[in-house]
UniProtKB/TrEMBL annotation:
GO terms for biological process: microtubule-based process; protein folding; tubulin complex assembly. Binds specifically to cytosolic chaperonin (c-CPN) and transfers target proteins to it. Binds to nascent polypeptide chain and promotes folding in an environment in which there are many competing pathways for nonnative proteins. Pfam families: Prefoldin. One of its GO terms (molecular function) is tubulin binding. It comes from the Eukaryota. Gene3D superfamilies: 1.10.287.370. Residues 1-27 are annotated as: Disordered. Heterohexamer of two PFD-alpha type and four PFD-beta type subunits. Belongs to the prefoldin subunit alpha family. This is Prefoldin subunit 3. Keywords: Chaperone.
Length: 198
């Protein structure tokens, strides 16, 4: 029986997520030790054909790298937002326990702020994204944001690991391209010297 997804701020809980592929599903690049064997094993029509395939793979790796860079930047911008929201929730909880109002200013529009007095509150509304806002108790909101912050740190760590792995694959592919190119140059030079001898 399939386990139902537990919603927590629009996200599945960690135990419900499918197992993660190693390195985010990034294919590993094999080092080409013997170019002759590589070209014969892979049944490439020519060294140029092998170079085109390696170049295609390099382009895919670079696209993956750009995608990971974007995800990393987005997470790095979300983490401070989670921390600020948690700090605000802690302030709201402290003021609620002390039965004190909060004096604050809030943004009305660009460069226009208004002063406000916020009475002690039991609930807060959180934007979950995609124009969705839900009301939570202070405790539930703290739990949700703490879970999201923890999850964001874990995902950021995975992304950094994937990026390191990806850099290794890019380097390996570039070295393979250089080796195949050099092999082809030597083969062409050998063919020319054989023709000149005959």
């Amino acid at each position: 029986m399939k386990k139902a997804a537990k919603l927590s701020g629009g996200k599945m809980s960690r135990e419900d997520k499918p197992a993660r592929k190693p390195h985010g599903g990034i294919p590993a690049a094999s080092f080409v030790e013997d170019v002759d064997a590589y070209l014969n094993k892979e049944q490439h029509a020519s060294a140029e054909h092998a170079l085109r395939e390696l170049d295609d793979m390099l382009s895919k790796y670079k696209f993956m790298d750009a995608s990971l860079q974007q995800r990393k930047a987005k997470l790095k911008s979300q983490i401070p937002e989670f921390k600020n929201a948690l700090s605000l929730l802690q302030t709201l909880k402290a003021k609620k326990e002390a039965s004190e109002d909060i004096q604050t200013t809030f943004l009305l529009s660009d460069d226009v702020y208004a002063k406000a007095r916020v009475p002690p509150t039991e609930n807060v509304c959180l934007w979950l994204g995609a124009n969705v806002m839900l009301e939570y108790s202070l405790e539930d909101a703290v739990e949700l944001l703490t879970n999201n912050l923890t999850s964001s740190h874990a995902i950021l760590k995975e992304i950094v690991s994937d990026m390191e792995f990806l850099r290794d694959q890019i380097t390996t592919t570039e070295v393979n391209m250089a080796r195949v190119h050099n092999w082809n140059v030597k083969k062409v030079q050998a063919a020319k010297s054989n023709e000149s001898e005959n």
